[in-house]
Predict the 3D structure of the following.
Amino acid sequence: MIKTEQELIFSEHAIKRMQQRGITREAISFIFKNGIKKITHQDHRYIFNTKKQMKKNRALLFDRTFIKFQKQIENTALIVNNGMLVTAYIIERRIWR
């Protein structure tokens, strides 16, 4: 079985919110590929938890994209539905489950 990497499609709403919140496409792609996925209702939420990644895959913390956009990556959550980015938002408080 060959695993193909899914490409993320950006909705108009997501592009608008990314521009308003100053979130780059590189940070979004990094979170989508390397973040932790949780199912919320019919959507998937992606976040990048640095502490969990330190235990799971320390090499990601030395990735050039992570170093360049570390603050954005650690403070951003994505809502994805069927491979389409619905929105991206800044995490201000603790996310439960």
